[in-house]
Amino acid sequence: MSDSNADPPPSAGRTPGAVIADETSRSITTARPGPILTLSPEEITRFFVRVRRDQDTERWDVRLDGALHEILERANDFVPSESGGILLDDPRSKLAGAPAPRLTFIAVYGPGSQERLGRRIPSDCGVAGAVYRTGKAHQTSELGPDDPLSALTSARPIESLIAVPVIVGESICGVLELTNRRAGGAYTPRDKELLRIFAAYMSSSIQNALDAIRARALARLDDLTGLFNSRHFHTRLQDEIARADRDGSELSMLFIDLDNFKLVNDHYGHIAGSWTLREVARLLSENAPPASVLARYGGDEFVVILPTCGLSRAVQTAETLRKIIADATFLDATGDAGQPTAALPSVTASVGVASYRDHLAPGGSARRRENVFLRLADAAMYRAKANGRNRSEAAEPEE
């Protein structure tokens, strides 16, 4: 039996924009949510490598740590809560066909934030999992003892929870959840409807940001491999050198050149050669350390910037990547359909390793240090070729 005195849903007779505007005017006195924590921009990036179904299959990266702060602040304005968080799946797991990708807290606020940030939970159980799988909002005053959310923090127990799906384009990619209604008691149907409307607004905002940043990102990418191009590589190298100077941190670089790559082009054609370059770029992307900056420098040359990485780790990374390339089997995917796929010749690489701390002499302008750093890695690569190819060599210190 309906209650004639019940409040109408916040969306009744009004557009979503009007609802948001109305609630904004009423939220001025809302208590702020306290410090909002997010993963680093570099870590956030991988959660926003998304493919939009109605466009091409290019992938792009985006840094949205500031936007995540604003989303949680606004969510708390509309439905004041003691704590909240944004969980996203890892698109790489989805692309790999994982049946139930795990959800990661990429932004949080409230008690126990430090414990929750970066934590992963399964997407095939619990309230968050149900929202992620069904795409439907959910509210509850009781979390089951086996719900992954109930065991995430030693702070105040969860007495009420509301969660809505996060949608990018047409794909559900995560969950926005709020816990412990600040006014006390259970979340109301009005809270649920309001947060559902806000989630649609949030998803649209994220998609607009992705589209805008994607257009800029494409200008930084190499058309063939999808890695950064040489122009953007130099910009990032300048940034990383400035950071190393400011923080006193380690910094290393790899200069990679494929051995005898001309033979692939000469014997199998340039299409097969291009295919090989794309496959090498894929191997580098999948196996380089997190936060690495990878670029195609030109032709069959690749460069890798390794922030916070000293000489010893850089040499280990060089050897790991070199062996992965040497052990890979490259198949000619350019033949006619229905014909057996032929194996292309194996490809090896010579790798030069330079350390900003160990190999550069102090002093000089930032431009000089950038040029010398790159030249030392390049010279080490040529020394690897002179010493037999398919090997890595560390640079010699600048005199």
How do the strands and helices of this protein lay out in sequence?
Elements: H1 16-26, E1 36-38, H2 41-45, H3 65-78, E2 81-89, H4 91-95, E3 103-109, H5 113-116, E4 120-121, H6 126-134, E5 138-140, E6 161-168, E7 171-181, H7 189-218, H8 230-247, E8 251-258, H9 261-268, H10 270-287, E9 293-298, E10 301-307, H11 311-327, E11 349-355, H12 356-359, H13 366-386, E12 392-394
Parallel strand pairs: 11-12
Antiparallel strand pairs: 1-3, 2-3, 2-7, 3-4, 5-6, 6-7, 8-10, 8-11, 9-10
Written overview of the protein:
With 399 residues, the protein is of the alpha+beta class. It has two domains: 16-216, Beta-Lactamase; 230-394, Reverse transcriptase/Diguanylate cyclase domain (Alpha-Beta Plaits). It is 41% helix and 19% strand. It is built from 13 helices and twelve strands. The chain has helices spanning 16-26, 41-45, 65-78, 91-95, 113-116, 126-134, 189-218, 230-247, 261-268, 270-287, 311-327, 356-359, 366-386; strands at residues 36-38, 81-89, 103-109, 120-121, 138-140, 161-168, 171-181, 251-258, 293-298, 301-307, 349-355, 392-394. The strands form two sheets. Strands 1, 2, 3, 4, 5, 6 and 7 form a seven-stranded antiparallel beta sheet that branches. α3 (65-78) runs antiparallel to α7 and α8 crosses α13. The protein is elongated. Mean pLDDT is 83; it is low at 1-29 and 51-62.
